[in-house]
Specification:
Blueprint: E1 2-7, E2 20-25, E3 31-35, H1 38-44, H2 48-58, E4 74-77, E5 93-98, E6 105-110, H3 114-120, E7 125-129, E8 136-141, E9 146-151, H4 159-170, E10 178-182, H5 185-189, E11 195-201, E12 206-212, H6 217-223, E13 226-232, H7 246-263, H8 270-273, H9 278-284, H10 306-312, E14 332-337, E15 347-351, H11 355-360, H12 370-383, H13 387-402, H14 408-411, H15 421-433, H16 436-441, H17 445-456, H18 460-466, E16 469-470, E17 473-474, H19 484-491, H20 505-510, H21 517-537, H22 542-545, H23 562-576, H24 582-602, H25 624-629, H26 631-642, H27 651-677, H28 687-693, H29 698-706
Helix pairs in contact: 1-2, 2-24, 7-23, 12-15, 19-21, 19-27, 21-24, 21-27, 26-27
Bound molecules: iron/sulfur cluster.
Iron/sulfur cluster binds next to helix 22.
Length: 708
């Protein structure tokens, strides 16, 4: 049944832009188009920039809303380069919402075909507001030129079912013309719900999907009673951006594609094993989170390494999450036989696992069985639960349980020791059903700390040290104890500790290329600004630095992979017609990055107190066992970095000195990073900075002035 409908003329996309955005209110049934003007393009570029600008204007100005108010929005935008088929990694959608976990904007960069199809259907961005009375679906038909809100009653919640059904229903004659966005029952019953973005893969015959994982966008989606969104587009996709300079685009796309095809087999083998190449590297450098980030390596890590997943992944199909991605890293396991839950015994295809899931749901839980990791991957996705928040959250629970902060009374009888794979699966199924201890775990670490302290008298100080969350978001899966720059990369990340903003561990810890505070601060400026740019344009960052030119190491700053940055500036110029150099790309990001920081301020969380302190587990050894497991390293540092002889000192004394030193270092790092970014000592962009960036809108100026 159609509840509401708008017909429209599908505009031709020109130089990467459709020229309008789509607004859908599932509460009132209102559907309308909003124009995109030159100022919006110049200031916000697209993707995350458009999403944030739309949200900024749509949320009530007089108060910081709660995530579950109808005014909260889900915004989705590709960006001007999204949908390009001749440049690798160009099919991403960027999703934003006020996060249930953090109360500030969260942004996720996700593959699948929805973002490109949305734009080719005539929309640079989509904002969904309101709260429906009953289950509904939103159907955008770029062939017919219509947007409908339809009755969603009778559809299952689980993503693997709903995506199949709707792909079949709306793409009967050609399923590859449909992309579905859905969440799942876990998104309904937890605060860490993710969104699944689908595409139909004719080679495997499956509907596959990728996740907008972080911060609970799926929870907002289900709270609005949206069961799914469908975008149908069967027109030509190649060339559909109508680039300003087709020849220049083809040339730069060819260069990057050729390099990937030539060098990937000699470097990370992304085409064969994707990010599963990472576990052995992380294990080797003591960076693989193990048992709630206590340790960075484990002898059993060999059971979940690259070779294990190479043998488990299904090979020989098209593994790109958008057309033309020559990195094609989106691997999966067909025919996994489920060992638990409602579909126990059934054979299912699973997309993934990727590195974050292997580490988060594997080593960090003390589980080194790849089949259980694949199982959690399947259920997290179809239930609509973020594998990172699930893994890091449950790792915290397991440590609390082993240290006696909570017991079986709290867990509903589950023996949640590290390594208990069956119990971990049971928690996941409870989270999907909204039952038992799963309800507590689904609230995330920030809320669990309060619950455990209040109900079970657990020590709040110890939980602050071992609970790996900042701003309410769970850490992604890297041990940062020996990289001060990455402690800042996580601690100062706008949306909370996710590595897509800055990943500085190798240049800082392994290669020691940024030893001073000034150099670390410079890295904490350049890398977040650069990485933000992918989210403005609907791009994947993997082709930038997961395969690098053969002579890259001869470069002055190899981590920046400047040859590729230059290619990206040519890519942008060729599509949009706006002549751009690498520094112009950084400026585009700086505008949106500062704007997002000010958005945090508007939501009451944009100052220094939300960037520090970070949980001490991310900085150094919280417990005696942690210190003693690496005593040689820490004793050496006491001597060389702090100037103290460890002889005759107890472990506790040495830990105290180490902690004081590391916390001071972090504090100084924040000072230096704020200064480099043009922010006050309290972490607020200065008036001069917002003027320079051209984001000095009256309400922005007023907010910034109030907080100088
Ligand atoms: S590199 Fe991988 S994740 Fe990125 S666009 Fe290509 S297939 Fe998707």
């Amino acid at each position: 049944m159609v509840l509401s409908e708008m017909k429209y003329n599908v505009p031709k996309v020109e130089k990467g832009y459709a020229g309008q955005t789509l607004y859908v209110n599932v509460g009132t049934g209102e559907i309308k188009a909003k124009p995109v003007d030159q100022k919006m393009k110049d200031t916000f570029t697209g993707g995350k920039g458009f999403d944030l600008w739309l949200m900024w204007n749509a949320l009530p100005k007089d108060r910081a809303i709660k995530w579950d108010e109808p005014e909260n929005e889900i915004c989705i935008s590709g960006g001007p380069l999204a949908g390009t088929t001749v440049y690798p990694g160009s099919g991403k959608s960027i999703v934003t919402a006020i996060s249930p976990l953090t109360g500030i904007p969260v942004d996720c960069n996700v593959g699948g075909y929805f973002g490109p199809f949305l734009k080719f259907s005539g929309w640079d961005a989509l904002e969904v507001q309101g709260k429906a009375k009953n289950e509904c679906i939103i159907v955008i038909d770029g062939d017919a030129g219509s947007v409908k809100i339809e009755d969603g009653a009778g559809l299952p919640s689980e993503s693997h079912l709903v995506a199949e059904i709707l792909t079949e229903r709306y793409g009967k004659e050609n399923r590859a013309t449909v992309s579905v966005v859905s969440a799942g029952p876990g998104a309904e019953h937890t605060l860490m719900g993710c969104l699944n973005f689908s595409w139909y893969d004719p080679k495997s015959g499956y509907v596959r999907y990728k996740q907008a994982g972080r911060g609970g966008t799926g929870t907002v989606f289900r709270n609005k009673k949206v069961k799914a969104m469908v975008c149908k587009y069967s027109g030509q996709v190649s060339g559909a951006n109508h680039p300003a300079d087709e020849k220049a685009l083809a040339e730069v796309g060819r260069q990057h594609t050729t390099e990937i095809l030539e060098l990937d087999p000699k470097q990370n083998e992304m085409r064969q094993i994707g990010t599963a190449h990472l576990p052995p590297i992380m294990n080797q450098f003591d960076l693989l989170p193990t048992k709630n980030f206590q340790y960075g390596s484990h002898p059993d890590a060999k059971n979940i390494d690259n070779e294990v997943f190479r043998s488990l992944y299904t090979h020989g199909r098209n593994d790109g999450c958008w057309k033309g991605c020559s990195v094609a890293c989106a691997h999966g396991v067909d025919n996994h036989v489920l060992k638990s839950g409602p579909w126990k015994g059934k054979k299912v295809p699973v997309d993934g696992p990727e590195y974050e899931t292997i580490a988060g749901c594997g080593s960090n839980l003390g589980i080194f069985d790849p089949h259980w990791i694949i199982e959690y991957n399947f259920y997290c996705d179809t239930y609509g639960i973020d594998t990172i928040s699930f893994g890091t959250g449950l790792a915290f629970v397991m440590e609390c349980y082993e240290r006696g902060l909570i017991d079986k009374k709290a867990t509903g009888g589950l023996d949640l020791k590290f390594g208990n794979a069956e119990a971990a699966a049971e928690v996941l199924h409870q989270m999907a059903k909204g039952e038992g201890f799963g309800v507590v775990v689904g609230q995330g670490i920030h809320k669990m700390k309060e619950i455990f302290a209040k109900k079970y008298g657990a020590d709040p100080k110890l939980m602050q040290d071992i609970g790996m969350e900042m701003k309410g978001l769970e850490y992604s899966e890297y041990v940062t104890k020996e990289s001060l720059a990455q402690q800042g990369g996580y601690g100062m990340a706008l949306k909370g500790p996710q590595h897509d903003e800055a990943w500085l561990i190798f240049i800082d810890m392994v290669r020691n290329q940024i030893p001073t505070f000034e150099q670390k601060a410079e890295a904490l400026h350049w890398f977040p600004m650069w990485r933000t740019w992918f989210g403005l344009n609907g791009l994947c960052k993997l082709p930038w630095n997961d395969i690098v030119p053969e002579d890259n190491n001869r470069d002055k700053e190899p981590a920046k992979v400047m040859k590729h940055v230059t290619w990206y500036s040519k890519f942008f110029s060729a599509v949009t017609g706006k002549k751009s150099e690498p520094d112009d790309l950084i400026k585009m990001s700086e505008r949106v990055y500062n704007f997002q920081r000010i958005f945090n301020l508007r939501m009451g969380k944009g100052t220094r107190q939300f960037d520090e302190p970070v949980p001490y587990r991310s900085m150094g050894p919280v417990t005696k066992e942690e210190y003693e497991s690496r005593a040689e390293r820490y004793d050496k540092q006491l001597k060389e970095k702090i100037g103290i002889d460890s002889a005759g000192k107890t472990t506790e004394e040495k830990m105290k000195i180490t902690r004081k030193f590391r916390e001071e270092q972090y504090h100084k790092l924040v000072d230096a990073a704020y200064q480099r970014r043009g922010w006050t000592n309290n972490g607020v962009p200065t008036l001069a900075k917002i003027n320079e960036l051209g984001i000095d809108f009256p309400d922005v100026v007023e907010l910034v002035k109030k907080n100088q």
